[in-house]
């Protein structure tokens, strides 16, 4: 039997790792890039800040539901366990693979982007972008093959450095006295349809920068005290991310007016150039590299946990449950890394990323629905943590997910078509796997 003692994950992770993986898996370079796009869509200081808060509240409401689900079923792989328990094997199989693909795309992307940022610092390396990306991937595979503890230590160090870098940037903005916050122009366009569309479009970008907030749930089986650690880390981690995102936006607008930010493709670099002079771009590049190393490390650990869970339930190869002495699901890590290597070599991410935005919203929405279903169908399941203001918060999370999904379908029908095709193909594949399992 594959789920023997030797193939069990080790309970070596605690609260500090949870916070580190949540921050590490969420805050990337998105927050340094998106303020410009959002300012061009909304063009109103208070509306921009409100949209960041709105995105944060949506994630916080989601964390409230996930805290109950992850403590009720503390198993490797996160969301798909709850969906499978509530809606059966096929729903679990489909959502598990959607979730896997969503989380297996980022490592390749981050390897490529880190190599691009290194080239900004060292232009002579510009012909070696792909080689650097592959070397980075190999280095992180070797790190995680050496054991979970090493991966956890790197996560905690890089996440702490990331938070320090971001707060230092915020403090530098507020200490700078050269430019005061420009008066906010009176804007009567709030009622315009175009602005309403801009608000939803900006929310799509904002949800993208919050993606990764539920990272702790993938490691529930390896947590030394999931009942206490998961709810505590979900709430404190998400609140910390919201605080960083809102503070960065306020700090940027302290230096530059909305009109200037709206014209910027990398707002952080423009702000840093004003504060630090010509070294500004270098400082932002270094912050970006720290951010990306932390998020890459987190996403090297997440997909193997999903694949381990899928393998244990017969939705992938039996060997997928193999765990080495260091507690790493070794086959799942190697399969995920080969997938990343393949993506680095193709190097086309636009389609994959819009696809990932869809699948994450679908999986979250199904997880919220599974909370409602399990409360009704299995009221006696042990629930160490109960969702606050249930069922209203969960219903709000479901409605918000449906609204976002409709917005995504409207703005990107191609990705939605790909999802429908994958769903249709998945059922015969599921039946084949189920026969093999029998």
UniProtKB/TrEMBL annotation:
Its main location: membrane. InterPro entries: AA/rel_permease1, AminoAcid_Transporter. The keyword Membrane applies. It is found in: Membrane. It is a multi-pass membrane protein. The chain crosses the membrane at residues 12-33, 45-67, 104-122, 128-148, 160-179, 191-213, 234-256, 281-302, 330-349, 355-376, 388-410, 416-433. Keywords: Membrane, Transmembrane, Transmembrane helix. PANTHER family: AMINO ACID TRANSPORTER, SOBREMESA, ISOFORM B. This is APC family permease. It comes from Flavobacterium psychroterrae.
